[in-house]
Design a protein that fits this description.
- The protein has 239 residues and is of the alpha+beta class.
- 20% of the residues lie in helices and 30% in strands.
- The protein contains four helices and eleven strands.
- A hairpin with a 2-residue loop joins strand 9 and strand 10.
- It is elongated and about 60 Å long.
Length: 239
């Protein structure tokens, strides 16, 4: 039995998220179906994390235990030949049997993309934002979201401690595109999308960057906004 690590790129607009769910089309489900078609066996795939319905990935990472005869190159080719066009196995390598795709993760980078106006060509991967945005206010808001805090107001906590560390939040603008990059070891459910929503609200002038500090209290005096899923991409996972 050989443990394999795969890097996966996918357009999340076609899926109900990463994780297998009954009667739902998911990325994990499609990969496991492809493995069964190629090997004739039920092989479970374990992802580094779950992405919500509509969220994309350029560098999702997953593992599987394989005992077939195909080389890694041939297995990757076979998988990509039967997977839908919206899913692509970018890399398939051998790792130690002790490698844990979740526990061994050191860093994840999420990228949220906004376009300031309508853009039919970018609407599947950008949030079309119809209001003027002040990039300098957004950058101040981004810095206020960094650090180790109680992020309960920016996530849907499900039995987990909301106190985690966000290494970096960066906002850049190039013409009509605004990019928000959020890096850290791990994030809570919908947290990055809500961070993007708060940053956009600051840029629009609905709240001030100084009000973000109050988000880290349990009083939650500022209403958080959940940015649309299709603007978010899981960009990189490092080990």
């Amino acid at each position: 039995m050989t443990r394999l690590k795969m890097t996966v790129e996918y357009d999340g607009a076609d899926f109900y998220g990463w994780q297998v769910q009954p009667d739902k089309v998911t990325v994990q489900g499609k990969i496991e179906e492809a493995l069964a078609q190629i090997t004739g066996k039920d092989i479970r795939v374990k992802g580094a994390g779950r992405t919500d319905a509509g969220v994309h990935a350029a560098g999702q990472v997953a593992t599987l235990d394989y005992e077939g005869k195909l080389s890694l190159e041939k297995l990757a080719e076979a998988l990509n030949s039967v997977l839908p066009e919206s899913v692509f196995i970018k890399e398939l390598i051998k790792v130690s049997p002790a490698f844990d795709v979740r526990a061994d993760c050191l860093y994840k980078l999420y990228v949220y993309r906004i376009v300031t106006g309508k853009s039919p060509l970018r609407r599947r991967t950008f949030w079309e934002y119809p209001y003027p945005l002040d990039i300098s206010r957004m950058q101040v808001a981004a810095r206020a979201l960094e650090g180790t805090h109680d992020y309960a107001a920016l996530c849907e906590v499900d039995g987990k401690s909301p106190e985690i560390t966000v290494d970096s939040v960066e906002v850049e603008q190039h013409r009509d595109e605004i990019t928000i990059r959020v890096g850290g070891k791990g994030f809570l459910y919908k947290m990055v999308r809500r961070m993007a929503g708060i940053i956009a609200d600051c840029g629009r002038g609905k709240i001030t960057p100084e009000m973000i500090e109050s988000l880290f209290s349990r009083n939650k005096p500022v209403q958080t906004v959940t940015a649309p899923a299709h603007g978010l991409t899981l960009e990189v996972i490092k080990y």
